[in-house]
Structure formats: C-alpha cells, structure tokens
Write a structure and sequence with these properties.
The protein has about 1000 residues and is an alpha/beta fold. Helices cover about 30% and strands about 15% of the residues. It is built from 33 helices and 37 strands. The strands form ten sheets. A seven-stranded mixed β-sheet has the order 14-13-27-26-25-15-16, with helices on both faces. A six-stranded mixed β-sheet has the order 33-35-34-37-32-36. Strands 2-1-5-3-4 form a five-stranded mixed β-sheet, covered by helices on one side. α9 packs across α29 (about 725-735), α10 packs across α30 and α26 crosses α28 (about 660-665). The radius of gyration is 29 Å and the shape is globular. The protein starts with a strand and ends in an 18-residue tail after the last helix. The chain binds iron/sulfur cluster (SF4) (3 copies) and FE2/S2 (inorganic) cluster. FE2/S2 (inorganic) cluster binds near residues 33, 34 and 57.
C-alpha cells in the first residue's frame, strides 16, 4: 500500500497512522497534542492536512492505499495556523525565562515551525491559582493549552484516572479528582502527566528556578522581565523573541547533562534520562524506555534524593569497641584482607560467607561470586532472591526449563486473560501494572486476581478470589483437574510438548472442587467460572510474586501455576506464559550471574566437574566442588559456630530477613563482619568494617529486569566523597588477597562473563549501547529471545514436563493465643524497609511510617479505630504500630507494609521456609493483637492518594470540547473522523 505525500509516493506500514507516515517521511507538520505512545487525542487541531480535497486531522486517520495528502496546501496551512493561534491564546510565550526552554518544548518549537510572528487571539490568563500542593510537581493553569495529553496519560496509560478537563466550564482547566487540590487527590505522583505535558504547565518542582539562566530570579523580577518581553513583542514579533530564547536554551546545554540510567527500585526495569546540573537532579525524563516507554512510578520519577543525602557514607569506618571511627581506604582494605586471611587460615574457607546485592550490577555480582569461589575458595555465596524468587525459579526449572519470565511485558499486555496470584502488582511493579490496567480498560483483557487483600488490581478484576492463606496450590490444582476432566485441556499441545501427563493427572485425584472449596473457602461456582475463563481465553499470562513464593509451599505452588499453563497450552506463543515478578531491580541478574551457592553464572552447576573445570581454567585456580550455604543456612551456621565471617554488600539483612531477631543475634556473633553500603544501615551496626559504596547513579554496569532484559546504566555523578563503586571495592579486596585482577571498566568484566556463560554468550556493551537491550538467552551472534520457548522447552528432548505437587498445611498456624493471620508486603511509595525512599522528603510527607491494616469487622469486634496504637506479638517477636482500618483486608487477616526500620515486620516472621529453596515463609505468620492506650492521627495522612476519589473516564473526552458553543473547527470543511 502507498500514499502520496506532497507529490512523493510513500509505502505504508501495516496499521500506520497518517501522522506517523508523514513524520516518517521527514515532512514537518505541527502536532501539538499528538504523542505516539498515547495515540490520537484530537484536541489541538494543529495537524490538519488536506486529503483528497478535504481537511482531516492527520493524527486521527489511518494511512490508506492511494491517499493523496497535502500537508502545506493553503487550506491546510490556514487551518494549522488558526488552530495554533488558539493554543497561544492559552499560553504566555516567555521562553527565555521559562524552565521548560530546553529545546524540547512543543509549544515553543511549533511557534518556530509555523514562523508565528503575531498572535491573532490575544493571550488570556485563566482565573485560577497555580497549584503547588503536590510535593513533586506543580500545575500552572495559565500556561495550560488544554491539549489533554496529561489526561490521556493519567486515564489510559497509567490508568490512575485522576485527571480530567472541565470542558463545560467557561474557563476549562485540568482538574484532579474533579476539582481537588493535587496534594489531596488520588494522584499517585507517577509523573506520567508531567512527562507528557508539551509545555511548562505541568513541571517537576526540581526544575523550577533551576533549569534556566534567568529562571531563579525572584517572582517580581521575573514578572517584570516577562512584561518587558511582552512589551516589545508587538514591535519585534515572536520570531526575534524566540531567537533570543534559543540562544539561552543553547547556553543551558553547557551546564546540564542528560544521562541514561535504569531504575534502581523494582524489577520492571524502567529506563530514562536523568537531567542534572552539577549534583542537582533537574528531572527524570522517560521517553522510549524498552520496558516502560514514558512510564514511571513515584519512586523512579521522584525518589532519587537519597543519592545526595547528607548522611551518605563517604569514608570507610572501622569498629573500635562500641563505636566506629573513620579510616583511610588503605587501612580499611588491609584490615579486611587480613581478617579474611586469618579466618580462612584458622577455620577454612567455608567459615566465610558472601552475600551479593540485588540492587547492584551484574558485573558486581559476578565479581563477588568470583571472590568467594576463586579467591577465598568457598561456595557460601547467595543473594536476596532466596528471600523471594527462588521458589518461582524452581517451579519453572521443574516444568519448562528456564528460571525466568517466559515472555516480555508486551506479552502480558496483549494476553487475552491475565491471572494475578499473590502479587500487589499496582504497588510492587507499578509500571508493569499499568499495562494490565490499560489492556483491561481499553482492550477487553480479562483479569482474575487471587489475593488475601483487595488491592488495586483486585478491585479492578473481573473476578477477585480470596482463598484462605496458604491454599493457592489447592485451588490451582483443582481447576487444573476440572479443566482436564471436562475436556477443556489443550490436548494437542500436551501430546506434542509435555511429558509425564499420566502421572500428573493421577496426582490431581485428590484435588476435587469440593475439597478445594472446603480448604480454600471458595465457592465451587467461582472455581468452575475461573477454570472455564482460563481454558477458553485465547492466551493467558499468569503473574505471581511473594504472596505465592514466601510460603512453605512456595516452590510447589509455583510449579502448580506452570502445570496449569501447560495444561491449557499457554506457553510457546505471544501473550502467554509464566511471569514471576522479580522484586528488586537486579534480583534476576544477581542470580543469573552466579551469586548463588550451587551455580556459577548462567545457572551452571558448581558440582558438575566439566563446568567447574572450565571455570578453573579461565580463573586459573582450583574451585570448591560442593554447593555452599544459602543465606538461610548461613544464619544457622553462625549460630552453630561453623560460620565466622561474612562480607555483605547492599543488603539490609537484619531487617529484611525473616525472624529478624534471630538474624540480628547471629550477626552479632560473627568474628569478622564486613559491610559495604551507601548508608549506615541497621545491619551496619553489627559490622567490624564498613566500606562506603556508591548508588547506581555513580557507576556503570548492567541490570537485568524481570523480563530478562539486560540494560546498561551510565554514570550520572562522580562518587560522593571517598565512596567507590562496589566492583572497584571488591576488586581491591581480591587483589589484596593476591588475585591480581585488572578490570578498569565493568565492560571488561562482561568480556570475561560472556564466553564463560552460554546464557549470555552474545552480550557485549556495544550491543547494549544507549537504550539498546538484550533479553537472555543471548546467542553468540547477539540474537536474543524476548519470548522463550518458541521452538522448544529447555529440556534435552525439547519437551516440557508436568511436575506433580502435593499440598500440606502451612506453618505457624493460628491458635487461641496467636489468633490472627499477618500478611506483609510493599507499599507503592516505599521500597522495602525504606532505606532509600525515606530519604525523599515528598515520599516521607505522603507516607511517613508503617502501620497495620485491620478489617472493619475485627476493628469493631476489638474497638479499634485508625490511629490507635497496637502491639503485635508473634511466636518470634513483637512490634508496636498504629492501626489503619480498611476494607482492603478481611476478617482476622492483618496486613503490615514492610516500610519500617524502627518496627520492621520481620521481627514477627518465623524461620520456617519453603521446603525446596529455604525461602522464608514470610506470609505464614500468626500474631496476637493487644490494644495500647494511645491514639494518634491516622498514620496515613489525609494527603495520601489512598484517600482520593478518582474520576474514571475514557481519556480526554474531546467530544465534549467539540460540543462547546465557542468551538468551531479550524479551516473549512473539516471532516470529523471518529477514532474511539
Ligand atoms: S496519577 Fe498523578 S502524577 Fe500520575 S498521571 Fe495521574 S495526575 Fe499525573
Ligand atoms: S497540563 Fe495537561 S492539558 Fe495542560 S498543557 Fe500540559 S498536558 Fe496539556
Ligand atoms: S520502581 Fe519499578 S515501576 Fe517504578 S520506575 Fe522503577 S522500575 Fe519502574
Ligand atoms: S495533533 Fe492534535 S489534533 Fe492531531
């Protein structure tokens, strides 16, 4: 198919919009409201073109075969100009003193493109104040051109449904929750609206007065300057004024930097440019992130203050009695090398253990495990995937072969049905959740959520099931059996691709619907309904997280999930598969790169002689032949006196490991404990030496996100004070122990990893340049696999395997004394215990502390109101927190977010673990609740987004604008094309 654009014939891509075709040919037309990731909004009318003699909006039309398009005919040009003139009636052009004058302002650039000299419609301010009530961004109605991009982004991309435009008002404006101050609305500060705003109406507060040369002037001076500029404008014309502002914009380039990085919080893997001026972060600017596009959540967009926090560790610290004193690097490193050497000499290499950080880079995890194995001589090496994801990996290893998400986030988005189990996706993986919310809202995707809490995804779901705690394996197995028994299984797929069917089907015998209904507390009708929905959907993705894995049956339940996917043929095609959502930004990468007791990088077994021989040859050492201790076993080994020394970097073990009191007690028994951190964390209290490391913005390397996507991060800032990137510190320690490593850049580390690791064979820094990414496995020629199992499963015969799994009762059951079930997890605003996020003032303001969620039923039974202090006591410890009474939880089930350093929920959790992986059963905790006498304010302040009242609608609803009495289509004979 082809179309003629201004006399030139152009091939049309399938499904291509006319505006995209025009842009692809390099023809420049105005397009103020159009944003490719939002689709047509149709509010600005500036993209008028003449097609076969008629005016149409280029953004709203699909390119069709034989179309003849004139982009600059007199009628199109007049329409474009008229439309843009109306826009300037809503926007004061004071570019030289505007913080958005950075070369990418759509209003500025369109003024230039159309060579506007004088406006016909004069600028008219709107009768509203600037809204500064959100801690991170502000809205200036006087500069708002009513393009509606922000509304579209909030309603249909983020799907928080906060924004709308008051089209019927004489002075339309953007409103939050229909008219609340931003800071008291349902806005979750994800920043989508700010990112897509084409001008300065919505701006990050961190930009204000900082981005421009003149923008820091006091307001009266600034207003005076604007008056001067506006005064000479009639004489000089906009062109001259624009030129002046372009000089100023060019000057800005010399003092601001834009550096690509990857988010350091969750496993979604959002990437963006960070704009900086010296050490000041001007803003986070996502544009075309492979995982996120323009999307972010509050943490990735606004949660970076910790990097410049005044309490960063900037010098090594050495313990002296009960105090720490500052030391030189030389002194600290010598002490570490001496400490490790002496312990190794006295009690052997296996009396030392190493824990790598899931926040740090792949290269750093690789070096840490190399230090443990090749320099010290132990496999006592682990990372925090043990706390969350190891059971999911096991479930996938057992059934399909690779321990990673079977597709990409785009597969989740295109699935016909998404089943979410034990994952608070909207808060723990916010940007990934937006893709599900969008597909569900706009594209008919079905959504089933199984969870103890009615979280946001549950509230949106077509079916929300609330099974009894610890019973997911039962209902999953029962609906799988029902699918088999009723001829709903994908028999052709099973026959061709799955082994062990007979044994598996037999193992399902006991999982009748009646048994599942009784054990799980779910109606049989609900079970049959979801079984049929799953079997009948054209494609199914199952997402799960710690609500599944952090149980004594975490591995088995993960296996049951994969069994269900195999039964229904939901592998091997787009829009299908298993998605265990990785929690930390690089928890996938830490395991991939060998920070595990039983695997070298790429899941190559340490006890396989041939594999070991390859690493021995490459590293020129003898390597220990037996798997080492995992991090759960390490704690027991310290208590037993077998483990004397640990080296931990970037892990807050004493708070995030289960049964925190037991862990803290163990750490205090170590003979020699080395911590490497960016802050003096709780765990640092137990250290003998503390080495100051750098956060991700101060180093280079790669992260691997939940969709197996490997991405490069670049150095934004130089290391603060004397802090140093972790890989440099690990190398220095290794060298003081005689290793002779000579890495000068993380790329050299990857040059060593790739040939040793078939899974990453083709990974090079060149192939990851800028925003380029690779999703493992990566073949030597650089080809990667966004969707796994397109040709076969990862087993010798290429087939998957059903893996039977029995059910047993959860641990730490309730009894008369401990009568309540305590669940725990993350909050949107905070990451984990909050060591990083509490250092962002705006986050602290919105969400200052942890709390315990209590159901209205329990609250009324015990006389508890929000704000009441309560004491929770488990078999392992106790905490004091304030109550929040909410319908998110039911009956005798409590929920406590993990964002607390002072009263961490893990003082209550047990040492029970998943039987296979030793992942702590964090979600199997029973407590008693005692009322304390004091009552305070609700621990969630009224300004928290959870108290807002969203106003869902389908995007910007431009039809309401078109119905206004004062609206007239620009140009003549506009052909209205309905696009929704
Ligand atoms: S939730 Fe708030 S920050 Fe996010 S798009 Fe909506 S209004 Fe903007
Ligand atoms: S605030 Fe919204 S409607 Fe106003 S200019 Fe920005 S994106 Fe457009
Ligand atoms: S925390 Fe996760 S969802 Fe939020 S910006 Fe970072 S990677 Fe994206
Ligand atoms: S770009 Fe705004 S209507 Fe087309």
């Amino acid at each position: 198919m082809s179309a003629t654009i201004n006399d030139s014939s152009q091939e049309i891509l399938p499904g291509e919009r006319l505006i995209d075709l025009i842009n692809r040919t390099g023809t420049r037309i105005p397009q103020v409201c159009y944003h490719p990731q939002l689709g047509p909004i149709e509010t600005c009318d500036t993209c008028m073109v003449e097609v076969d003699g008629k005016l149409i909006r280029a953004c709203a039309a699909l390119a069709t075969d034989g179309m003849t398009v004139l982009t600059a005919s007199p009628r199109a040009d007049a329409a474009q100009r008229e439309a843009f003139d109306r826009i300037l009636g809503n926007h004061l052009l004071y570019c030289t003193v505007c913080d958005n004058n950075n070369g990418n302002c759509t209003v500025h650039n369109t003024t230039g493109l159309l060579r506007v000299e004088h406006q016909a419609i004069p600028y008219k301010p709107k009768p509203y104040e600037v809204d500064m009530s959100n801690p991170f961004y502000r809205y200036d109605p006087d500069q708002c051109i009513l393009c509606g991009r922000c509304v579209e982004a909030c309603q249909n991309l983020e799907v928080n449904e906060t924004l709308s435009i008051t089209w019927e008002n004489p002075h339309p404006r953007v409103v939050w929750d229909g008219g609340a101050p931003i800071g008291e609305s349902s806005c979750v500060s994800c920043g989508h609206c700010v990112t897509v705003c084409p001008c300065n109406a919505l701006m990050e507060k961190s930009m204000l007065g900082e981005a421009g040369y003149f923008t820091s002037l006091p307001k009266p001076s600034l207003d005076g300057m604007i008056d001067v500029v506006k005064g000479i404008e009639p004489e000089l014309g906009d062109g001259a004024i624009l030129q002046l502002s372009e000089v100023e914009a060019a000057m800005r380039e010399s003092r601001t930097r834009r550096t690509k990085t990857v988010c350091t919080y969750c496993g979604v893997g959002c990437s963006f440019d960070i704009w900086t001026k010296d050490r000041h972060i001007l803003k986070v600017e996502p544009a075309n992130g492979p995982a996120n596009g323009v999307s972010t959540c509050i943490k990735g967009k606004f949660g970076w203050d910790y990097v410049n926090s005044p309490d960063r560790l900037t010098k090594p610290l050495i313990r002296e009695g009960n105090r720490f004193r500052e030391a030189t690097w030389d002194e600290a490193l010598s002490l570490v090398a001496r400490g490790f050497s002496e312990i190794k000499a006295a009690t052997g290499p296996d009396s030392l253990a190493f824990i790598s950080s899931s926040k740090c880079t792949n290269e750093e995890s690789y070096l840490m495990q190399k230090l443990a194995r090749a320099v010290i001589g132990t496999n006592n090496m682990d990372n925090c995937s043990r706390y969350c994801q190891a059971p999911a990996t096991t479930g996938l290893f057992r059934t399909v072969g690779y321990g990673g998400d079977s597709g990409s986030i785009s597969d989740v988005e295109r699935a016909g049905l998404v089943l979410i189990i034990g994952s608070n996706t909207a808060e723990s993986h916010p940007v990934l959740a937006t893709r599900v919310k969008r597909a569900h809202k706009l594209h008919g995707q079905k959504l089933i959520v199984a969870d103890l809490r009615e979280n946001e995804m549950a509230a949106r779901a077509d079916v929300f099931l609330h099974p009894r705690p610890g019973t997911d394996l039962v209902w999953l197995s029962a609906i799988t059996r029902y699918i088999f028994d009723n001829g709903l299984a994908d028999q052709a797929f099973i026959d061709k691709w799955v082994n062990n069917t007979a044994e598996y089907r037999k193992s399902l015998d006991s999982f009748t619907l009646e048994m599942a209904s009784q054990r799980c507390g779910l109606p049989i009708e609900t079970l049959t309904r979801i079984a049929r929905m799953i079997a009948e959907a054209d494609s199914v993705c199952i997402l799960w997280a710690m609500g599944v894995t952090q149980h004594t049956m975490g591995s088995d339940t993960s296996t049951a999930i994969s069994n269900l996917l195999l039964t229904t043929g939901n592998y091997m095609k787009p829009g299908t598969g298993a998605y265990p959502l990785r929690g930390h930004n690089n928890v996938q990468g830490a395991s991939d790169h060998g920070a595990m007791p039983n695997y070298f990088p790429g899941y190559q077994k340490v006890d396989d002689p041939a594999i070991r021989a390859r690493f021995e040859k490459a590293w020129n050492v003898s390597l220990p032949p037996k798997p080492g201790l995992d991090n759960h076993q390490m704690i027991d080994a310290i208590h037993d006196g077998r483990l004397k020394s640990m080296y931990v970097f970037g892990e807050e073990m004493s708070l995030v490991d289960s049964n925190a009191n037991y862990v803290a007690d163990a750490l205090s028994k170590l003979d020699f404990f080395v911590m490497q951190e960016i802050f003096f964390s709780e765990t640092c209290r137990f250290a003998d030496v503390i080495l100051p490391a750098t956060p991700s913005l101060e180093k280079e390397g790669t992260f691997t996100s939940t969709e197996r996507r490997i991405q490069r991060l670049y150095r934004v800032f130089e290391p603060l004070g004397e802090s140093r990137p972790d890989w440099e510190i690990i190398q220095d320690i290794a060298n003081r122990l005689g290793a002779g490593w000579k890495y000068e850049h993380p790329s050299q580390i990857y040059e060593e990893i790739a040939p040793l690791t078939p899974l990453m064979a083709g990974v090079t820094y060149e192939r990851l340049e800028g925003y380029k990414t690779l999703q493992w496995p990566v073949a030597e020629d650089g080809s990667d696999q966004p969707l796994l199992y397109t040709k076969e499963f990862k087993f010798p015969d290429g087939k998957a395997t059903f893996f039977p799994v029995p059910w047993s009762e959860p641990s730490d059951q309730q009894n008369a004394q401990y009568d309540l079930h305590l669940n725990n997890g993350r909050l949107l605003e905070h990451f984990h215990e909050g060591n990083m996020t509490y250092r962002t003032e705006g986050i602290r303001e919105k969400t200052p502390c942890t709390f315990v969620e209590i159901s209205p039923e329990l609250a009324s039974e015990r006389g508890i109101e929000s704000g009441r202090w309560v004491e929770l006591i488990s078999r392992y410890g106790q905490v004091r927190v304030q109550a929040v009474v909410t319908t998110r939880v039911q009956g005798k089930e409590l929920y406590m977010p993990m964002n607390s350093v002072e009263e961490p929920v893990n003082r209550l959790t047990s040492s029970h673990t998943d039987k296979v992986t030793h992942t702590p059963a964090y979600k199997e905790t029973s407590v008693q609740l005692n009322l304390l006498s004091s009552i305070g304010d609700n621990p969630l302040p009224r300004t928290n987004s959870r108290f807002g009242h969203p106003t869902p609608q389908n995007g910007v609803e431009v039809e309401r604008k078109w119905k206004r009495d004062d609206y007239r289509q620009p140009g003549d004979q506009l052909v209205q094309i309905q696009t929704r």
